[in-house]
Amino acid sequence: MGILEVKGVNKRFGGLQALGDVNLSIKENTVHAIIGPNGAGKSTLLNCLVGKLIPDSGSVMFDGQSVLGRKPHEINQMGISRVFQTPEIFADLTVLENVMIPCFARRDGAFRLHAYETVRKETGIREQAEEMLADVNMLDKRGMTASSLSRGDKRRLEMAMCLVQKPKLLLLDEPTAGMARADTNNTIDLLKEIKSKRDITMAIIEHDMHVVFSLAERITVLAQGTPLVEETPENIKGHPKVREAYLGEAQV
Amino acid sequence: MLGLERRDTLLLIAVAVITLFAPIILNPFPTGSALAQFNAGYPDLMQRFVIFGIFAIGFNILFGLTGYLSFGHAAFLGIGSYSAVWMFKLLSMNVLPAILLSVIMAGLFALVIGFVSLRRSGIYFSILTLAFAQMSYNLAYSVLTPITNGETGLQLTLSDPRILDGASTGGLPVTSLFGAEMRDTTTLFVGPWSWDFSVGYYFCAVLLLVAFYISVRIFRSPFGMMLRAVKSNQQRMNYTGLNTRPYTLAAFVISGMYAGLAGGLLAAMDPLAGADRMQWTASGEVVLMTILGGAGTLIGPVLGAGFIKYFENIFSKINDGILHQWFAFMPDGLENVIVAVLHPFIGKGWHLTLGLMFMLVVIFLPGGLVEGAQRTGRLFRRRDRNADHMESDAARQRAAAE
């Protein structure tokens, strides 16, 4: 039984069957990659997991509870954090504030009218955020406005914001999309480092085979809205079905 | 002090000192002098400065922090005024219960209007709030005449019950705070100057300080940080486990209550309420005040409110006759030309001047008057530093020469 169990999920947009009978099981403390050609339904599947889309049928169970019909912030409070294709951060706030906000969210829940408290006096939250920033080597940048960070640092910051919540599952939506090779390698190193320091389950949606084979322990190949195979990276490389559907066009 | 950082405490003290001495500061010109018309230190205008300052501070909590541009805040101002006048009619001429009801009623209306309007953001939110405010205006003007007295506006009458005060004897009663009448004014003459100290003004000023203090606390609280996060990235908020709706709604209700307080104070200073107070131009005015002063800054909205009210009341009073007096030293032909050129900008044309100034501020100082002050401050500091450099350079050269 995995931490995330997707069973028989269907999603249709008008005449297009975006997801057809998707079954997926992600085990605790593994890095699970979901790959597939363009239009395979990777993003649709991800959006069904985080509450942005509601599947037409099927079930999505996380940690023994259904996530269907819950709003994104409720699903996050259950323990699923998400990293976006382009880093989604609070650009107008400082780096430290960016990390303090998820700390508040974890302590106080989805809403609290703490209008008569003072941020300066929240030493516990501040320490927690600073510790996290030190962990991703960004403590020296804590006073900077997040919008002035380099792209790589924005990605780092977004990871820090997700990790400080101590999520049970971290979803990464093409974390290296549009990056130069050097940046891609940095991101891979960052993810490896994150993984080595703590027990965490990650699901990565990715295009770049290099990233997938560097990180993933399990790989699910999605084609035309349906999972073709689920295997270890070694077995995926030589799999004839996969080659046919997807890898035929890529050099591996 | 009071749970504030040092810088904020200093700001609060500065605001307190300025409001305390405003009757003197705003009357810098001797009464008989030609410049006396630029004096703004009369009670009626000072009360307006402070009341619209409160209105703008509240508006800034919504617009400055969350970025939601409400175009219907005058509705809450009007609701505050009507509530206060009803309290004067039914209960007592004491201003405290009146203001309390103003704040509560405005808060309730804000809860309902905000709940509906906040389902949308950006321009759609602005349009929804505008629609609600215009609805309120039209209701007050026509359908709700039994409550609002329609066109005439709600006024005190001799037949009002006033349960606590009893029937009035003689003329209409006046608003007061436990006996201290709001219209009471003491005039102090010092040489050629005269300064008016009015009870009403100081009552409003105390409430301004309280309102300002609460606003500083909100800005520095985790709640304030969440509101800034809403402005910055709602998507990230949701995926960080935070529900943005109650945060924005709370900000909307708080700013609505500020508007209600301002409306209640308007009625407390002059116990009548008309539908005009809810018109969309009044909603637009508070937007102008906030942007002109500096949206998202602590002191900006108060500055903007003071600035606009000063122009509205002082600039609009300058007429051609006064211009002719000023330029009397010039040859007649030139004098007439200059007066003709300036004519559209003064008197009833003060809106034109205000519009031009607003354009200049938005184009050159997007952060409003506060940014202007900061830039000026930085300029001086840099000059000081340059001077220091020069001195130390000179000292080094001297040392080297010896």
TrEMBL record, chain A:
Source organism, top-level taxon: Bacteria
Which keywords annotate this record?
ATP-binding, Nucleotide-binding, Transport
The record's Gene3D superfamilies line, in alphabetical order, gives:
P-loop containing nucleotide triphosphate hydrolases (3.40.50.300)
Q: Which GO terms describe its cellular component?
A: plasma membrane
ABC transporter domain segment(s)? 4-249
Annotated InterPro entries: AAA+_ATPase, ABC_AA/LPS_Transport, ABC_transporter-like_ATP-bd, P-loop_NTPase
> Matching SUPFAM superfamilies, A to Z?
P-loop containing nucleoside triphosphate hydrolases
UniProt GO MF annotations: ATP binding; ATP hydrolysis activity
> Which protein is depicted?
Branched-chain amino acid ABC transporter ATP-binding protein
Species of origin: Limimaricola cinnabarinus LL-001
UniProtKB/TrEMBL annotation, chain B:
An MF annotation (GO) of this entry: branched-chain amino acid transmembrane transporter activity
Keywords tagged on the record = Cell membrane, Membrane, Transmembrane, Transmembrane helix
Q: How does it sit in the membrane?
A: Multi-pass membrane protein
Gene Ontology cellular-component terms listed: plasma membrane
Residue intervals passing through the bilayer: 9-29, 49-69, 98-116, 123-144, 199-219, 246-266, 286-311, 323-346, 352-373
Predominantly, its location class is membrane
Q: Where in the cell is it found?
A: Cell membrane
Question: Does the record carry Nucleotide-binding as a key word?
Answer: no
**What InterPro entries does the annotation carry?**
ABC_transp_permease, LivM-like
Q: Name one Pfam family in it.
A: BPD_transp_2
Keyword Transferase listed? The answer is no
Question: Which PANTHER family does the record cross-reference, listed alphabetically?
Answer: ABC TRANSPORTER ATP-BINDING PROTEIN (PTHR30482:SF17), HIGH-AFFINITY BRANCHED-CHAIN AMINO ACID TRANSPORT SYSTEM PERMEASE (PTHR30482)
| Name the record gives this protein | Branched-chain amino acid transport system permease protein LivM
In which organism is this protein found?
Limimaricola cinnabarinus LL-001
Source lineage = Bacteria, Pseudomonadati, Pseudomonadota, Alphaproteobacteria, Rhodobacterales
